[in-house]
Amino acid sequence: MRLKKTLCAFLTLAIGMIAAHPALAADPPKLDTGDTAWMLTATALVLMMAIPGLALFYGGMVRKLNLLTIAMQCFAITCVVTITWVVAGYSLAFKGDGMLIGSLERFFLSGVTLTTVHSLAATIPESVFIVFQMTFAIVTTILIVGAFADRMKFGAMLLFAVLWSLLVYVPVAHWVWGGGFIGGWGAFDFAGGTVVHINSGVAGLVAAIVIGKRMGVGKVDMAPHNLMYTLIGASLLWVGWFGFNAGSAVAASGKAGWAMLVTQFATAAAALAWLAAEWLVKGKPSVLGILSGAIAGLVAITPAAGFVGIGGSLVIGLASGVACFFACASLKKMLGYDDALDVFGVHGVGGILGAVLTGVFALTSVVDMTDATTKQAIPGGLIDGNAAQVWTQIKAVAVVCVFSAVATFVILKVIDLIIGLRVSEEIERDGLDLNLHGETVH
Q: How confident is the model over 57-70, as pLDDT tens digits?
């Protein structure tokens, strides 16, 4: 009898100790099916921006003899960055609390299960958050190829994609979103003004300068060969951008809906602003102009989508359309670089402008929006910020510009020493499609 009582007491104590263990006592994360469904959709939309969106957008702007090459670059980078992100990119960007870089806690996604979540997205499976962020890394790396279109070796481009995605994109993503020092400053970047657009725009500018101008630029006709491809690509980018911006709310919430609204509004304003500027300066409004203006607006509103009101989004849209037009039409000629598809003029300039104006037009009522407050009216006033926030935005822009420029330059120079960056004059003259890939469009 005494032994029985002793055993019962021991079992009771053991069960109590087990139940009290923090790892076992804590409630498992509660996944929200609505949030998960929306984020699956947003992820697919952002991937659509890369392929076929950017492949068509860029493909229509190059000469016909290089169409397959640039489409191949977009497709191959999608595959390459998928691998680098799974192996180490995600872990280094979003795990660990280092100010400069994350940890390898999730190396090869170790520890990710059906039920794990990330603290930045606690209502969706971590697997969905991983792929969503992966698509941002893919798009950012692809954007750069437009700057060196028509002249880079395919092998050099692949090696560049591996190194740049890990050594440039990942650190910046960590600094801004993953617990690094830029986010610690309180800089606002809702969906990638610094991480995606300034980063890729500056990298594109450096690549264009290091690799050099295309043969015959300014002498040979370099006009886009098929603007219908570009129009279709731009349209896919516009639709996919809702995954980019509204998806960055990481929930099916009022914040997502608001981000979608200001994104649409700013994009339309920017497209019309570019169109008007071009019409006044050149005498004719072009298809490529209105498409480029729309992309400029999408770029500029990206860092601001979760922070600004209607008035702010209008100013950001109008300003980006005009500024990016003059950057592409005048600045490039004035400085003499050959950014083939205006990556810096649209993404670099638009990203810088949008990031700074985010600090100017951020509204407390939008920044602090939660599900509990979405029924409240959101004011459309222009300014609710302060000079300190603008200065924080400027510091973030400056750091990303300098880091991206220096790191990209070093990566390109190392690749040039190892295998060379540029195709031969004969290949460039006769076209990359047939010489590098043994195929032609027709």
A: 999 999 999 999 99
Q: How many CA atoms lie within 13 A of 392 on its CB side?
A: 19
DSSP class of 101: -
CB atoms within 10 A of CB 223: 9
Q: Mark the ranges of the chain whose per-residue pLDDT is less than 70.
A: 1-29, 369-385
From residue 178, alpha-carbon distances to 42, 92, 358 in Å are 20, 9, 20
Please enumerate in sequence order all residues whose Cβ is within 8 A of that of 11, keeping only pairs 6 or more positions apart, or say none.
none
Name the token pair of 40.
Answer: 């699956």
Q: Are 320 and 296 in contact (CB under 8 A)?
A: yes
Tokens of 424: 């031969």
Nearest CA to 405 out of 232, 210, 159, 193 is that of 210
* CA atoms within a 13 Å half-sphere pointing along the CA-CB vector of 340: 31
Q: Which domains does the chain have, with CATH numbers?
A: 31-437 (1.10.3430.10)
Which residues, including other chains, have CB under 8 Å from residue 59's CB and lie 6 or more apart? Answer: 67, 70, 71, 226, 229, 230, 233
Task: Please report, as a single letter, which amino acid is at residue 70.
Answer: I
Residue written as token pair 């989508």: 305
Q: What is the pTM of this model?
A: 0.91
